[in-house]
Design a protein that fits this description.
Blueprint: H1 19-25, H2 50-55, H3 58-62, H4 66-73, H5 79-88, H6 92-110, H7 115-124, H8 135-143
């Protein structure tokens, strides 16, 4: 679904075609077709919007995701089995703890704090699900923010 390398327009060579062009080439585009339904597609709809039409194309349904293609190409098989074993080797409590810690760091970085300050803040507020906005008052004294 990319333009061929010998395409007449050099700026399009090797570039993705886009939904409109792909559906137009297949004769599936119709006037007034929306890219996506405004309020979500109805259950079982097959041609309500461009994304649904493309999603229901047989070659699109058979296409594996890029990660799966790379893993299969390198000879790895049974990824689902490997992931399952890996997840089973770690307790649910540990997974939840790391998840909370990751979300805490995400919250800290979204507030614009640097790595050094983030480490201090994450340690100080480790019992909270998120870092309170009052943290800026606390660290402004030490770090001259």
């Amino acid at each position: 679904m990319v333009f061929p390398l010998d395409h007449e327009d050099a700026s399009l060579q090797g570039q993705p075609k886009g939904l409109y062009i792909v559906l137009n080439e297949r004769g599936l585009w119709r006037e007034g077709l929306l890219k996506k339904c405004k309020n979500g597609c109805e259950l079982g709809a097959k041609s309500c919007c461009a994304i649904t039409i493309m999603f229901n194309e047989p070659d699109f349904l058979k296409q594996k995701c890029q990660l799966e293609e790379i893993i299969t190409a390198r000879g790895h098989k049974g990824l689902q089995n490997t992931v399952s074993k890996g997840l089973n080797s770690v307790s649910l409590l540990t997974i939840r703890r790391f998840s909370r810690k990751a979300f805490r760091y995400i919250d800290i970085y979204r507030k614009g704090l640097t790595r050094k300050i983030a480490k201090y803040v994450a340690k100080k507020y480790h019992s909270h699900r998120r870092v309170p906005n009052a943290v800026f008052d606390d660290i402004a004294i030490f770090y001259d923010i």
